[in-house]
Amino acid sequence: MTADSQTVGSEVPAPAAPAPAPAAPERLGTRLAQRLSGGLLQVVLIVVGLFWLVPTIGLLLSSMRTSGDLASGGWWTVFSAPSKLTLDNYQKLLDNSAITGSLVNSLLITVPATVLVVIIGALAGYAFAWMEFPGRDWWFVAVVGLLVVPVQVALLPIAKLFGSIGIFGSVFGAILFHVGFGLPFAVFLLRNFFAEIPRELLEAARLDGAGELRLFFRVVLPLGGPAVASLGIFQFLWVWNDMLVALIFTDSGSQPITVALQTQVRQFGNNIDVLAPGAFISMVIPLIVFFAFQRQFVSGVMAGAVK
Questions:
Q1: Averaged in consecutive runs of 10 residues, what is the pLDDT profile of the chain (307 residues)?
Q2: What is the pTM of this model?
Q3: Which residues lie across from 169 on neighbouring strands?
Q4: C-alpha torsion 213→214→217→223, nearest 10
Q5: Which domains are assigned to the chain?
Q6: Which of 113, 126, 110 shows the shortest CA–CA distance to 285?
């Protein structure tokens, strides 16, 4: 026997690999989550979305039915006779000066209140995030503290103040009130978003000779587009759907659509042929604004979640 064969024969066999540990049984919650994350969850979400759209669809169909049809049955009966749908109610709505005027007043109040809050809130948010001035942190704490002040507390004092300076009951007074109560949230939201911008980026822009305003409009504002869009949507929806402030700070010549519809219900009761299309238009305009800025809104929410 050769040396090589002796060496091979004397080799010790390698130890067997340990048997794998038995897999832990899946918990009931894990199995349920795995099943729900598949097609079942999508079906549930679709069903919930359809139920959420039912009132909107019902209001749309009701706005295209005559008063007699509305009195004879619910909006779902239209599927048995879809030929009865008509746009005459919208023609009546356009002939109703109170409703059309209130729609214009809603736009005159909502658009300036939204634009002013976004512009002032963005400038103040940038100042609190990246500019040094005495008492900056204490001023920001005071702004955050205004978030807890309820609107109802300030209604009567501000109404008395507006009356003394002659703007009570006007569109300008309603705009001023909405701007004042929308700014604390705007400053808080945009300051926290702007503070996450890398400092190196701002310092590089300053080295290139950019001033504060140019730095804000050319660097900070484009990067904060999702947050600005989210703020604009929130402010627009809040002002457009408001009724409490409008009831107090507007009169018959400056009332928005929410107050006008409520007045129509109180005065005419069964004036559904005007109320239904007016309510649908009042609801569909905020939906159009939301879907127009949906991409930026989702980006702003996701960015805030990641940060």
A1: 48 55 56 63 82 84 80 77 81 83 92 94 90 87 88 89 91 93 92 86 80 82 85 91 90 87 68 79 85 67 45
A2: 0.76
A3: 250
A4: -110
A5: 97-306 (1.10.3720.10)
A6: 110
